[in-house]
Batch of 4 targets.
Target 1
Amino acid sequence: MSKDHRVVVTGMGVISSVGNDVKTFWESLVAGKCGIDFIEEFNTDNLPVRFAGKVKDFHPEEYGMDKPFIRKQDLFTLYGMAAAYQAMSDCGLVAEGEDANIDPFRLGVYVGSGIGGFEVQYRETAKMIEDPSGRWISPLFIPTMISNVATGQIAIKYHAQGPCLDPVTACATSTNAIGEAYRAIKHGYADAIIAGGCENATIPLGIAGFANAKALSQASDPKYASLPFNANRAGFVMGDGAAVIILEEYEHAKARGANIYAEMVGYGNTCDAYHVTAPRPDGTTQARCIQIALEEGSFDPATDRLYINAHGTGTKLNDVTETKAYKVALGDYAYKARISSTKSMTGHMFGAAGAAEAIVTIQTLRCGIVPPTINLDTPDPECDLDYTPNKAVRDDITIGISDSFGFGGHDACVAFRRA
């Protein structure tokens, strides 16, 4: 297992506030469409925040799930299953039966969730408070709530008997999932891995918790609430959904004639080791994470055109620190890089954010279009890089990275090149 293997992307799937398939998702982002709106799924009259990037028009039965299964699962699992269904249908990998084209012990699943079955926890806890005997607690509570259940259900569905992990690193979860999957394939432990993340955290308890931590925007207009790198920013906007990509060993993909979207070429993983919620102010640990991914991807500032899908949450601390990190990591080239935060349109998808933004990065490389950071009408003077304000631009991008920084100080960055 000493030989390093090349790793490519052969399938993609997404569930989000701006589209429930990759084509719609991408076209919405390029058009600057905002998926953030007032919440209709539950009563928000007494809550401090009444809007989010909620998933719309989601019908799980369209993604290979039957009604008994749907009825028993938390939405985070259904979102993850739907994104995996799209990605597996797209890539054409089959691990069982006459049409099998991969050894099931060489097919893995690395799909993470930052919180897991939050809605189930909320509902069952309410029952326990009402009746401390616990007699009305669902027998499915634990296997529906634990964050690794989406990973396990995806593995069951696709007979993936190889390495199976559920990384939990808050906002960096699915970036770490993709990065660790990349390393597993690169170093010979799998031929393909279903990698990404899923989340359904926008419930009353989640809103109250983040709002009371002073993390959420409390703007009056949901369409002008997620404001990355804007001087008017006042917190992030919650979002839900899932995103999955199929990473596959290059020779394995080539042998079966798979469609290759991009090559994954780098992964950085560091820790701020500074504070539970605040980023390290000088940006050095975040910068090192970015540098590791770019160095592994053989980034050459003399010849490469770099796109960065920023973490870009729209909080006061993150955006300034992230700007510093780019300058530390890239030096003068930071002013030449194309950068955007698609959270301005999707909201912050937590455990699914990194994978969704990896898909954006891959699509940017494929299409030569950089999606915008919408609502960037008043740039913060401390965020003085090219954050692609308001409208998409065309550019011949040769290498793209997506970075994620999570509570706990988790820093993750993944790098891709055109196929």
Target 2
Amino acid sequence: MICKDMKKILFAALCLLISFGTASWAQQQQQMSPEEKEKKLNEFILQQVEKLETSLKLEDWQSFYVDSILTHDYHALQAELDALTDAKVSNGDLYTQVSDKWAEQIYNSFHGILNEDQWAKYLKGGAARDKKARDKRKAKAAEANATLK
């Protein structure tokens, strides 16, 4: 059994790794030209749409909406992350909050277009786990904010 202090140390180490990973990713993104970023982002979106089409057996109209949702939301996410990077923000938590905001937007949008079976498969594919992690981070941030006031 892990004691409370050990849990705090492990959590702090995990947060540190996430922060470094996010900052490193942002730094890599900043070193790319805008054209390279756009190309990589569009390739990523196309891969995600194809993956969802295959795994969830999407109808044509659903594929259209998935593509539209991902294109809009990932470009908006990229714009916000670029703004943080341009402002030289080094706090990894802010990058995580922006990512969580757009992941939640995608999650909610997909819920509106997937049927029950597709939604269940989507959740089993990792979306439920990701949602739980986002909710947990949001609750911790709210708790931390409440203690500051």
Target 3
Amino acid sequence: MAERRMVSKAVLHSPSFLAMPVAAQMLYVHLELFADDDGFVATPLQVARMMGIPKRFYQILVDQAFVIHFDSGVCVIRHWLQHNKVSPSRYNPTVYETEKARLRTEGRTYCLCQHDADMMLTQDRVGKDRLGQDRLEQDSAGKLPLSQRRFVF
């Protein structure tokens, strides 16, 4: 982790940032201090706990799209490329290659790849729609025929 970080006034003075609670703003700045050279933070909730900031303020950062949270528990600062430019001689690539592969850049902002965003939306919807369809297919005894049962391991 580098010792110096920059913070863009354009992001911190934006109306959406200033509209957030001060605790969420403070957490954002501290996450930036703990980020690696690609903007990834290994343990964002631990940083929040260390600062005495409740988890709900981290969720505000996720909901307002200031950070992108991954299922692995890692997060990336969405505006990292606006804040920091690490010189090639000092750059250390992130160890979170799987998460980084799911990102694309739009201008100087990280975004989830469209495929990943679509998958997260459709997985939730397919599961709920399929539940209703399974109920309609049940036989009179209230159980699905063996050929239609799905086994989850």
Target 4
Amino acid sequence: MRNVSIGIIGGADGPTVVFVTGEFQWLWILLAGIAIAVGIAIVIKILKKKK
């Protein structure tokens, strides 16, 4: 296993940026992207329920 780091920076008034350092296979990038998309969908669903 190689050392890999993923950082997500997002603000309320700006775009979200994902920083990836290290070397890893495309499968891990794909899985990280799916996890991020699912997380965003869950947050949006929670916020819509509160309105």
